Amino acid sequence: MMLSIPSTAKLYSCSTAPRVSSSKYSYFVKSLGARTRTRSSCLLFCASNPWGTAEILHHRKSSLNAAASTPEVASSSASDHHDVSPPPPSFLDARTEQDLLLVIQKEAEAGRLPINIAQGMTELYHNYRDAVLGSGHPKAVELVMSNMAMALDRIFSDVQDPFQFSPHHNAIREPFDYYTFGQKYIRPLVDFRNSFLGNNSIVNEIEKKLEQGENVILMSNHQTEADPAVIALLLESTNSFIAENLIYVAGDRVITDPLCKPFSMGRNLLCVYSKKHMGDDPKLIDMKRRANTKSLKEMALLLRSGAKIIWIAPSGGRDRPDPVTKEWHPAPFDSSSVDNMRRLVEHAGIPCHIYPMALMCHELMPPPLEVEKEIGERRLISFHGVGVSVAPSIDYHKIYSALEDPDEAKSTYSELLYSSICQQYDVLKSAIYGKQGLNASSPAVLLTQPWL
Q1: Cβ-based neighbour number of residue 96 at 10 Å
Q2: Which helix or strand (DSSP H or E) is residue 198 part of?
Q3: What is the mean pLDDT of the chain?
């Protein structure tokens, strides 16, 4: 699900749209069970009980048992029992597709689920199902039911009791493990046989830097809300520490969209407002700037403590295809965002290393063709190969000492980082889309598949 850096971050709570009229609701109820062809997704990510499912069910059953044992219920007559409404159906109790869709319909009918979110959840089910079934996985049906039941349950739970993200959010691992939930949800969408990790030796180098108490910054392009899950999935077999401890600079949209929030709750985040959305509402510009300043202070504190790894997309948003050629390329970097991070790590007083990282995963959940102001974008989702690559660290001290003009030095350093990412991206593109596989490796990018 995801992320970008502005030069200036915000605690954001989920907001839901007002409920629609009864006529619109009737139309939705009639169409809810129909198969939706439009595709969508939510953001960014098998043990026998990886999510805490048993704990959730146990809590619900305990509550029902406790209610049944109260004096009031115990002393009620048989006729009284006929007046007691049964508990609403649960997503976790669903056994079929029809069960899941019926729960959405019932919760919308009861007014507990806003109509726009109910429609999004229905689309999400159909689109996730189609993508996973298209993967050819032998247990695709079971995966769809298991993952979607949990996803819909978590989305609904947050609608009922919205979670508020702090400027620095730590991944929630208990009592419900949102990190593992996100990993298991995204895993069936990744074609691992057609996925590649570039320069795993450099990733190992990064992990050693962290063990020594030094900081690491990953300057990266940004493609989908699922970027954090993709990175973690490709690193979990060789570098699980990085996979689980990476901190993402996250735009406010992934912590406000109800379909994204549960997935964002499983990631370590520094929450900011992207420059691209800073002026969406002129009345909120000052508030957004103050919030971003607060988040940057949180980032400074983290860097001063050492042994932190932070992922940033200096483009300020997701890559998008060229409107004419339809080709995908990393979006250009904002040199001021790169320079802000450079100055921030310098003031931390802890050794820090900046590495360029390339991501290729846009097929999984490509963004809208144009930047949208409104929360609740329509999303695509598919099964596809992905790629992650990291190149050697670029020492900004050497750049800044070689050039006398500070503005020229700032621009040159940003261009070097971006150029490295484009070079790695082209190798990943040849491997995945050019069908060259591991043979696409170059002197600068050695591709591996450590999960096979």
Answers
A1: 9
A2: strand 196-198
A3: 82
Task: Give me the pLDDT at residue 403, please.
Answer: 84
Q: Which residue, among 236, 243, 235, 297, has the nearest Cα to 270 in the 3D structure?
A: 297
Residue type, 433: Y
- The C-alpha atoms of residue 404 and residue 35 are separated, in whole angstroms, by 63
pTM of the model as a whole: 0.80
For 371, residues 6+ apart whose C-beta sits below 8 A from its C-beta are 276, 277, 317
Longest dimension (CA), the chain: 89
Q: What Å distances lie between residue 292 and 223, 251, 278, 284, CA to CA?
A: 22, 10, 10, 12
Residue pair 216/301 in contact by the 8 Å Cβ criterion: no
Query: How wide is the angle at C-alpha 282 spanned by C-alphas 278 and 286, nearest 5°?
Result: 70
From 83, 161, 286, 405, active-site residue: 161
Beta bridge partners of 269: 169, 248
The structure tokens listed for 82 are 């006929």
User: Is residue 407 among the annotated active site residues?
Assistant: no
Closest CA to 152 of 190, 120, 175: 120
N residues, the chain: 452
Residue 247, strand partner residues: 268, 310
Q: Which one, of 264, 220, 243, lies nearest residue 44 by Cα?
A: 264
Write the pLDDT tens digit of every residue in 352-362: 999 999 999 99
Residue 371 burial (CB count, 10 A)? 15
| DSSP state, residue 13 | B
DSSP 444: S
Nearest-CA neighbor of 316 among 263, 273, 375?
Answer: 273
Query: Tokens 């996730």 sit at which residue?
Result: 128
Any idea which residue has 């409104």 for tokens? 374
Strand order in the sheet with 309-312: 168-169, 268-272, 247-251, 309-312, 215-220, 352-360, 387-390, 196-198, 447-448
Residue 248's identity, in one-letter code, is Y
Q: What is the pLDDT of residues 115-139, one digit of tens each?
A: 999 999 999 999 999 999 999 999 9
Residue indicated by tokens 């099964």 = 383
Pairing of strands 168-169, 268-272: antiparallel
What is the C-alpha to C-alpha distance for residues 105 and 342, in angstroms, rounded to an integer?
50
The whole-angstrom separation of Cα 384 and Cα 189 is 7
Burial class (CB within 10 angstroms; exposed 0-12, middle 13-18, buried 19+) of 403:
middle
Ordered DSSP codes for 96-109? SHHHHHHHHHHHHH
Amino acid at 25: Y
Reduced to 3 states (helix: H, G, I; strand: E, B; else coil), residue 389 is strand
Closest CA to 292 of 260, 251, 322, 332: 251
- The β-bridge partners of 248 are 269, 311
Integer Cα distance of 342 and 414 in angstroms: 10
